[in-house]
Queue: 2 jobs
Job 1
Amino acid sequence: MAENSERFITAFNRIDKAMDGELQSSKGIGFSKAVRILTRYNAIVRRYKDDLLEFAELRNAIVHNRLDTIQVIAEPHDSVVESIEKIEKEFTQPRLVIPIFERRVHIFQSNKALSELLHVIREKGYSKFPIYDAQEFKGLVTGSGITKWLSMNKETSIRDVLIEEILPYEKETNHQFIDKDTSVYTAVELFKDEISKGNRMDALLITDNGEADGKLLGMITAWDIMSIE
């Protein structure tokens, strides 16, 4: 078997096996049908649905099954092979939000002075801060929320304002928590889904268990999402 066709079939079979595994199908239900089913809840398959269905047709065009043997009748182009191998890697070794977005997130206690937070904005350029009361998550303070507070409290001196006073000016939907094993494409879809609903989501907060009480491991912003290919 020629190199390109061998590489194509190897990648195709690995994707097929991985999909059967996710569907817990020991006998296999067919490549195209598996793609259509997994499209409903697998972000990676959903992202590459059209490519995968084309690969299924191409597989039938380049090989001919005869008496349990594979006879190559056409050779796929280099770009096609590279594409299916890339998708195979994405599916079998998906990129996860951790370690890609693992970082020390600057957090604040709710009883700290707003002036301290503003100092960090000025010095570091950060604009999104998870707020806690001891170990309990209270909300996400953003530049937008601070601006709203300022517009409603023009006569108030910032010197005596606590961070917790900003939280009522933030939307509770400005963030979501996700598990450390979430794929980067699922993260992308979470942002897109909120946009399609007319909502603004400022950040995805990554914890070890996907809950507010979990250990905070990283944060993803809309700007970060733009860097995902």
Note: The beta strands are 63-66, 69-72, 108-109, 128-133, 136-142, 175-179, 203-207, 216-221.
Job 2
Amino acid sequence: MPVSEDDAELDRLFPDANGVYMSREKRIVLRSALSADGRARTLTHELAHHLLHRIRR
């Protein structure tokens, strides 16, 4: 699954979020300024969203 950093997209869609799972595109967008720990936590959280979307199908 593609993972990218795109602060402009996050600011437009979810200004308070550190990341988002884009279910239609099946990709994850993260903030560029996250620490390594913050990136790992946010990526884990967004991957959980991906898995939940798969289970619900």
Note: DSSP finds two helices and three strands in the chain.
